[in-house]
Structure prediction request, 432 residues.
Amino acid sequence: MIDTRVSYKNSEEMLERALKSIPLGTQTFSKSKTQYPLGVSPFYIQRAKGSKVWDIDGNEYIDFISALGSISLGYNDEDVLKAVKAQLEEGTIFSLPHPIEVQVAEKMIELIPGAEMVRFGKNGSDATAGAVRLARAYTNRDYVAVCGYHGWQDWYIGSTPRNLGVPKATQELTLKFEYNNIESLNKLFKEYPDKVACVIMEPMNFEHPEGDFLNNVKELAHKNGALLIFDETVTGFRYSLGGAQELFNVIPDLSTFGKGMANGYPISAVVGRADIMKLMEEIFFSFTFGGETLSLAASLATMTKMQNKPVIETIKKSGQKLLDGITKIIDENELNDIFHIGGQPTWTILGMKDTEKYCSWTLKTLFLQEMLKRGILTLGSHETTYAHSDEDIDKLLKSYHEVMPILKNGIRNERVIELLDCNPLTPLFKVR
Prediction:
């Protein structure tokens, strides 16, 4: 029996308080009230361990968001904590670099096929912006071809509906092409001959690359004098230890990493060919906290554990069980016309389509409401970690078994609004 009387009193009071001092009530758009329906959602988490989190009202959840994919081993992993505590005794930042910068760079070069040199940032947006600036300097060109989501910086976000505050001249330098559509990229090169500095793309997100698509992108970019950049902020240290470039055996000129490379500590990296990376000495890509040692210690411990333990194999196994199970549940409920599951087993996404009567965001609201009632924290994606147990996966699938019939009933009998205990979420811009 599901307890429908879950209290979010403390969360809602904290949100109300936060909105007086913080726009959106938080620092991260994807963690804000735009994503979680008021009245049926937690808004603040107090603590976490392994695959579980507890909100400030004391409600417990199995977390399948995993801090937007930045947790790969599990919350508060003991090996990472030990490394961070040891480094804390030496210090976090100094007037000169600490040797751990070199150690982490060498480890990334060891693990990532396309890495010959490394520079660190703090967020994925730092790394993608740095890689684009580097490509522009190397090619002496201004235009950038993009596919996927690449962060908040002007050069990329100006190409989306969230472009408020981005100069029009900057917006016009970013050109979009479609995944698995090589002709859409070829068209850009024809329209902007000898002007495109680089192609930057997520090597995979929802869709699998068809045929030799990634290699074709690389060949087309090089044929037109542009560099290829893989944004592996999500795929790195998740799809494979060496990233999607290792999984698909396509080596870019540059690539960017973040999220799971330090099990939740703030660090990102630009890696790539040494002849290109050497230009980092000439362009300006510099941070006071770029060499902050706690995140570097966490990164070294995370990568080392991934080498020594079957981390990615375990994540893939759990994710495949999840992927197969959800696919079957959607089939059984005859909802393939509305719901579909995609991605790699290590990072799957539940896609939702509009119906004649309901916007997909209204359906998502009902989905979230019911999953949260069952102690599952998800936004429709599933970022499994080394800490997720078989029991965690079974509970997620059990929840899907219960929630999909509710959605089917609501859609087929036009009862979705009636089934909601809150107002529907408002549609937002899509990043993928």
The mean pLDDT is 96. The radius of gyration is 22 Å.
